[in-house]
């Protein structure tokens, strides 16, 4: 039932797709804009989305007559806009000041549990056993939680100019990932 080899494979695949370390500039920017990040809430919501998609993803997409490729392209467009925010310093996602949702949108979805993560989970289901995928998801959620909790410390260590440079560099990387997902699924 549980396979250590499968768990390691799933964990590493999801770690590279979720790329929470690469999202640190976005997390710091959200924390600055929102005042704080609800680490536990973002982790639980993204975990809930991933687990729900593991079991119901194909059915949900079929319910709306969508294919995985269309879902991935939609996620790529959101990622593209977030990358443009990072690179250009503009704000496309305007929030209602009366409701703070930064821990959910865009953090939990689409950054942590985005189209790339969800389509990867669907793909993993065809290769690996569900219990091993669940453990891989849980390990990644633990890493996500730790990084979210440490975002304040990371911001202090990076400083204002370090954060700005990191934000632009990862913005370009996120933009390239969005274009790749868009191109592969168009």
Plain-language structure description:
Helices cover 80% and strands 0% of the residues. It is mainly α and 186 residues long. It contains 8 helices and no strands. α2 packs across α8, α3 (39-63) crosses α5 and α4 crosses α8. The protein is globular, with a radius of gyration of 16 Å. The chain has one domain (4-90, 97-185). The model has no long low-confidence stretch (mean pLDDT 86). The protein has helices at 4-18, 24-34, 39-63, 68-88, 103-112, 115-125, 130-149, 151-185.
Structure summarized in a few sentences:
With 186 residues, the protein is an all-alpha fold.
Decide which structural class fits the backbone: mainly alpha
Give helix and strand order, one letter per element, not per position.
HHHHHHHH
Number of spatially distinct domains: 1
Give the termini distance in whole angstroms: 36 Å
Principal-axis shape equals globular
Helix-residue proportion: over 70%
Tell me which oligomeric state these chains represent: single chain
- Note the total helix count: 8
**Fraction of residues in β-strands:** under 5%
Query: For the CA atoms, what is the radius of gyration?
Result: 16 Å
The residue-averaged pLDDT reads 86
Low-confidence stretches: none
Tell me the major beta sheet.
none
**How many DSSP E strands?**
0
């Amino acid at each position: 039932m549980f396979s250590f080899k499968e768990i390691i494979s799933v964990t590493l695949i999801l770690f590279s797709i979720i790329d929470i370390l690469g999202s640190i500039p976005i997390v710091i920017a959200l924390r600055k804009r929102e005042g704080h990040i609800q680490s536990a809430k973002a982790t639980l919501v993204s975990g809930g989305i991933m687990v729900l998609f593991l079991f119901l993803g194909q059915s949900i997409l079929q319910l709306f007559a969508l294919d995985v490729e269309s879902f991935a392209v939609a996620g790529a467009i959101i990622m593209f806009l977030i990358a443009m925010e990072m690179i250009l310093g503009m704000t496309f996602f305007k929030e209602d000041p009366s409701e703070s949702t930064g821990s959910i949108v865009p953090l939990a979805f689409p950054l942590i549990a985005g189209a790339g993560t969800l389509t990867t989970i669907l793909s993993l289901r065809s290769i690996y056993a569900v219990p091993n995928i669940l453990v891989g998801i849980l390990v990644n959620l633990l890493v996500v939680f730790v990084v979210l909790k440490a975002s304040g410390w990371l911001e202090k260590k990076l400083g204002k100019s370090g954060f700005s440079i990191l934000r632009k560099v990862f913005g370009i990387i996120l933009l390239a990932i969005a274009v790749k997902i868009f191109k592969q699924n168009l």
